[in-house]
Amino acid sequence: MRGHLHVRLIVAVAALVVLLAAIAWHVSAAAAKGRATQTIVVGPQRVIIDTDIGDDIDDAFAVSLALNSPEVEIDGITTAWGDTHLRARLVNRLLAQAERSDIPVAEGIVTHSKARFTQARWAEDGAEPEEHVDAVDFLLRQIAAHPDDITLITIAPLTNIAAAIDRDLATFRKVRRIVMMGGSIYRGYLDPGAGPNPPPSAEYNIASDVAAAQKVFNSGVPIYMLPLDATQIRLDEVRRGELFATGTPITDALTQLYHQWGQPTPVLYDPVAVSYAIQPNLCAMKSLRIDVDKDGYTRIGQGAPNVMACLESDREKLLDFIMPRLMARPKASK
Fold it and tell me: Which CATH architecture has domain 45-327?
């Protein structure tokens, strides 16, 4: 009897040893899996920038900020509004100066623009490219190739974007989000004499093509809106001097473009949108329903929210983010 008990005890101990070994293996495997998960590096977010670069100077600052930000991978730059071919030449020259000619440039829909193309001479002095692809085709192809992965940064009238919606809404809705510089909700343009809180304005990017803006706001795509309320960040003389004295290829280009622009103080509307796309904590968002009226005003409406909007921003915090990046020496493409 004792022999049987001894055998049973040995069997039980052996089973316990096997069980403990199995538990130890699972624990170590789980720990290893946890370590592996923690070491996964998330790559930069894909972005396409739709810009009317060449009129105001802020577009050049915005594109340069994106070029010098490792958190974004620029899949392409599309030109919007007015002479989109000359705008594409300007982008090509800026990219060449930054040693980023690997980034595709696409020409948008040509329109009549009342704004003056202030930086046309700088664009014309660049090499004439053989050909640019069509911006609307390019947008839809990229979205289809990378569904739910592309952030579309719009810093121009929304003509190209609305055309993409008209052409293939199902594909367009696969864009991850739109980060938009546009609109005016509570505060309009801070023109001289307007006071610190001027009434809402018909902001340029929205009012230039009202029908296009209405389509975009009703598209069902997530929109993160950076209106005049949050984007009127002036680049003062001291910071301009620091920037233009840096002597990198990009700051040299910005210096030339600034002087062709021909006005004293840039307002960094568009760089605020790029900054938010890179670092969302720079601007708190509020969920709103925004409707675009026939005159291009972005009004708070009734119904389900269709945007997240930034209604105020911290000037110094934004400039502290933007300036070091603009002054950094960009990394050339591999």
Answer: Alpha-Beta Complex (3.90)
